[in-house]
Write a structure and sequence with these properties.
With about 100 residues, the protein is of the alpha+beta class. It has a single domain, classed as Winged helix-like DNA-binding domain superfamily/Winged helix DNA-binding domain (Arc Repressor Mutant, subunit A), CATH 1.10.10.10. The chain is built from 5 helices and 3 strands. Helix 1 packs across helix 5.
């Protein structure tokens, strides 16, 4: 995952609704949830949910697959691990040498 992809994922997850969607999908596991279930559980209207899922999909934070007439969404754990690695590398690289001030 290159730096631009990591920044795109970080930007996409930095929104209250998208973070809630990601948390719900991560808890649901690899089977994911259908869009209607996500909408119902989080109280996000379908048009807004569609917008957020599209943005998250572009950042590889969610993947989708069709099962019959439903589209199931799953959390993109590789992308979020890439964001965590990126933040660790750029923000904490010198933390072992420089103690945090409190």
């Amino acid at each position: 995952m290159d730096e631009d992809a990591r920044l795109l994922a970080l930007s996409a997850i930095a929104h209250r609704s998208r973070l809630a969607i990601f948390r719900l999908l991560a808890a649901a596991g690899p089977g994911g949830l259908p869009a209607g279930e996500i909408s119902a559980q989080l109280g996000i209207v379908p048009s807004s949910l569609s917008f957020h899922l599209k943005d998250m999909s572009r950042a590889n934070l969610v993947s989708s697959n069709r099962r019959g007439t439903f589209i199931y969404y799953s959390a993109g754990l590789d992308a979020i691990h890439g964001v965590i690695d990126f933040l660790t590398e750029i923000c904490l690289a010198d933390s072992a040498r420089t103690p945090f001030s409190r």
